[in-house]
C-alpha cells in the first residue's frame, strides 16, 4: 500500500481505539482537566506536529519512513500519556494512552 493511504488509516484507527477504549474502561466519566492541561495540549501538539514536519522534510529519506512513523506515534502518544498522567490526578487514564501508543507502533510495523 501507499504510505499516503496508510498514514490516515493509522491515525483514524488510533483515534477510534482511544475513544472506544476510554468509553469502555472509564464509562462516561468526564475527566476534569485543569487549565494548564488544556494549555499544554493546545501548545504542545501543534508544536510536535511542526517539529515532525520539519524533521521529515529535512532529514528523512525514502527507506527511513517506517522508522519516522514509529517515532511520530511514540512521540505523540508519549506526550498524551504525560499530559494525562500530570494533569488527571487520581485517574489511571494515562495507562490507556500508553496502551494505545503500543497499539500504534504495532499498527505501523504491521501495515508498513
Count of discrete domains:
1
- What's the N-to-C terminus distance? 8 Å
User: What's the pLDDT, averaged over the residues?
Assistant: 85
Query: Which structural class do you get from the secondary structure elements?
Result: mainly alpha
* Biggest sheet overview: none
Q: In terms of topology, how is this protein built?
A:
Elements: H1 3-26, H2 35-59, H3 65-87, H4 93-111
Question: Key terms for this structure?
Answer:
mainly alpha; transmembrane
Descriptive overview:
Keywords: Membrane, Transmembrane, Transmembrane helix. It comes from Bacillus mesophilum. Pfam families: DUF4181. This is DUF4181 domain-containing protein. With 112 residues, the chain is mostly helical. It has one domain (3-111). The chain contains four helices and no strands. It has helices spanning 3-26, 35-59, 65-87, 93-111. α1 (3-26) packs antiparallel against α4 (93-111). The longest helix is centred in the middle third of the chain and has 25 residues, at 35-59. The radius of gyration is 15 Å and the shape is globular.
Amino acid at each position: 500500500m501507499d504510505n499516503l493511504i496508510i498514514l490516515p488509516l493509522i491515525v483514524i484507527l488510533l483515534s477510534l481505539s482511544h475513544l472506544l477504549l476510554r468509553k469502555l474502561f472509564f464509562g462516561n466519566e468526564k475527566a476534569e482537566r485543569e487549565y494548564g492541561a488544556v494549555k499544554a495540549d493546545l501548545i504542545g501538539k501543534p508544536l510536535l506536529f511542526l517539529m515532525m514536519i520539519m524533521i521529515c522534510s529535512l532529514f528523512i529519506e525514502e527507506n527511513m519512513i517506517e522508522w519516522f512513523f514509529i517515532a511520530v506515534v511514540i512521540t505523540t502518544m508519549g506526550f498524551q500519556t504525560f499530559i494525562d498522567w500530570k494533569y488527571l490526578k487520581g485517574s489511571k487514564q494515562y495507562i490507556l494512552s500508553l496502551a494505545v501508543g503500543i497499539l500504534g507502533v504495532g499498527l505501523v510495523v504491521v501495515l508498513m
